[in-house]
Amino acid sequence: MSPLFSQLAVLGSSLTLIFALMLLWHRSVHAYTTAFMWQSVVLAAIAAVVAYFERETELYFVAAMFLLLKGWLIPRLLRRMEEPFGAEQELQPYVNTATSLLVCGLLVLFAYAVCRPVVALSRLPTRAGMPLALGLIFVSLFVIASRKKALTQVIGFLMLENGIALLAVLGTYGIPFVVEIGVFLDLLLGFMVMQLFIYRIRETFESIDVEQLGRLRH
Amino acid sequence: MIFLLLLFPPLLAAALAALVKPYRGWVGWITAALSFAPLGAALSICARVLEGEVLTSGAGEFLRADGLSALLALCIGFVAALAAWLGPGLAVDDGYDAAERRSYRVFSNLFAFTMLLAVTAHNVGVMWVAVEATTITSAMLIPLHITKASVEASWKYILIGSVGIALAFVGTVLAYFDFVNLAGEQPTALNWTSLLHSAPVLHDAVLKLAFVFILIGYGTKAGLAPMHTWLPDAHSESPSALSAMMSGVLLAVAIYAIVRWKIVVDAAVGPAFTNRLLIALSLLSLAIAAFSLIGQRNYKRMLAYSSIEHTGLTCLGLALGPLGIFAAMLHMVNHTVTKSMMFLLAGRVQQRYRSTEIAEATGLAGTMPVTAGFFAAGMFAIAGLPPFGLFISEFALVRAGFAAGRAWLMAAVLVLVVVAFTALVTHLNRMLYGTPPQSIFVGERERWALVPPALCLLILLILGLMLPEPFSRLLNKVVEIAAP
Amino acid sequence: MSRWSVEIFQVVFAVLVAPGLVGLIRWIKARLQSRLGAPVWQPYFELRKLFHKEAVVSTNASWLFRFAPYAVSASTLAIVFLVPVLVAPRGLDSVGDLFVVVYLLLLGTFWLALAGLDPGSAFGGMGSSREVTVAALAEPTTATAIFSLALGAGSTNLGAIVVATLNDPWTVLTPGHLLAFAALFIVAVAETGRLPVDNPSTHLELTMIHEAMILEYSGRYLALLEWAAWLKLFIFVSLLANLFFPWGIATTLTLSALSWAAIALLVKLLLLAIVIAVMETRVAKLRLFRVPELLTASFLLALLAITSSFLLR
After folding, report:
1. I want to staple A13 with a disulfide (CB 3.0 to 4.6 A). Which of A41, A132, B21, B331 is the partner?
2. Is there contact between C and B if contact means ≥3 C-beta pairs under 8 Å?
3. A124 to chain B: which residues are within 8 Å by CB?
4. How far is CA B389 from CA B138, B250, B269, B383, B467, in A?
């Protein structure tokens, strides 16, 4: 059982990372939303797999929450934003696509290096996925820092949250339930506030390109 | 019970303001009155902590208050009351419409609630959730008046703040991972006391990695350079009452989170590691803040950079052993009192002059003599002059540094503090004197609103001239916790 | 059966099936686009026709131009001797491993690029420069992707890699394997001039790569080059099939094992042909300057593959 379990965990983690890399390659909000949705579905699947093999009933709830919140509700809200913002594509990010891809490759290598002590310590069958989760976190940070559209940054933030959730599922089989609920609540509220602000940015600046947000200096 | 009194009134106030639509004046007065409850509760917690008690409550000791929590709760209660009395919603003509007043009353109370929860939560995961929630609630208030600048500031704040806090969660998860790895899963594993209890057997490498993430994460909220970029924008563009809350206590809450984790990590790997990191980041913050102060053209941004400077000083103190921690805590309290007063006064100036440019807010001494006097006193205080509290705490801090054998570091700090001092005094001069713009109203309006700043100034003087005995005992309690 | 007759049989099999594979992909594509489509064996007719036609050579062309088709087809043919098609490990595994395969691929590309430049026509030069750009980005990826598999198997021999996968089927699900598959798939598309990198069925001067280089060729030269290109596609597809889904490949030299291997390979080719046809129907051709980005992405996948197989060994 154990080899299959760890294989599935690592396979799932690599898939989530691949979905994050899709942000670098694609340019449309539609593709970003799709990538985020599938990433969340894979994340929920990983949580369910861990719950099944380790008999952690609590994690089934967490998996269901992932599916409901990140796999369905938030993508739905994002889809609704495609109509007004879909025309604003990520045509000229601060870092071009080819360089971004190479930088992200290096970031994943860096995540492996950073994770060494952590992986060496663990005896869990899922430990091999932890560097990939950290890699996903770093890649999401890079997306937030290198992309110009507010909506892309939000999706990068959502993927960052996915990376942390993945780290928690793989490394500790989920955090205490109270905290988990709080994190879900924060994520949902935070996303809704960001969504509200994107509309405001559009109203005041007539575009969601954050390059225009340069009035405040010093 | 006492926790109920601490946490429930802000929630009640927020609910009341949310339910009554459109906004009515009496809602403002009730919420302002309710703001005294947490302050009273915090005082009573302090008293009980001084008797050697550690208060806990709820299932699995969900809430817990020791000396450190009590000190922070007191600061939050104080500033929240100030902001409730002087924020939009009470004065007849404060430049805000009904919808804006209602939203201020809802979110400022939620903001106060999340901060109080952050400092009393026993579980470091819940603490994280609460700190993240402070970002959401306060971000809603920054663009109370929708302008290009305020929208920009709020976007930067929520994005940088959320991302930073997310990194702190990575650190929390890593520490929890180490704990679970050793002791197996337990519902109380993230309780601070359990972490501290098992810290000596946790692993060096993992905890160090975790602390790096945590310092970057909460350091972002605390305004430590180089993650400080959101701070000047958010502080200068938000309504003054919110700036007072953010600068006065939000930064302190973030420092509180860092201290909590520093204690755990120090118990595992010894203080040298965390001290090195803290010194590096605080020295950078000090330098960036001091040199940014020189060229400031906007007085609210000037106050914001001064907050970065004082955050740097506080974090520096944390790295200097027990004496330093005592000085840092004293400094934090002093800064809370001073900076909330300064932002409220700046709000008065802004309302009169309709500008936050230093060059346009000239001749204060003539147009608003009392406000100008308080403002000048506050500026001297944040510049670190006697007889105010900040002088004492900075002096104690430098002495702790020399006692810890870090003479060169202290020399650098002194140079930077002098640079900041010069810049602040120069800007103050330009604001106090000179010719005021024409057609400006001369004389003070709404004199009752000057009572709270006067109170702040009194507290500052007391802290500067004589450290009250119960207060220094409370600080010693904190030192006992933070440097066992 | 003797070792040598099996080797010869494999090469003949590959050479004969390759045009059929291309015909199959074209036919499936036509069907997907609601066209009737040419029959599957149309490429064989094309070859017969071309071999019977006169070869016209530009007066500007040098001996390079006449020599290149032989060099290209010879280097491609040499690869077939080294790649596990029906049997693994191959008898010639001691002669060359994956590095030799990669360099033989490059050798063919090199001659083709020279031949495109030689007659001095505008399109040929354009095609050559584009082909070299693609090759420069694609070859490292091929090597890295296969090398990540080699790390898992402990050998750079393609046959040994296949056998290692057969012995431990769960490795197919490791991220190293899957990432390497994705990387190699993108490279295969780029190397064999399929959509979305190059369009094999048009002669649009703005975008064509492979077709631009062989624009000047006719008669038997063109037949050789086309056949070599199809063989290259066959090599990549059977590599993908055998490296990642090795089941059915013969490990003994009995007649029954061989015939099962042939049937299994044909089924795998059919499946991959369907995948390629569906993909080519769905995607549009990329703008030329996005091609390097695609290849960088595939290189990144290969890099991640090699990282994870190195660290998770």
Report:
1. A132
2. no
3. 181
4. 28, 20, 34, 11, 9
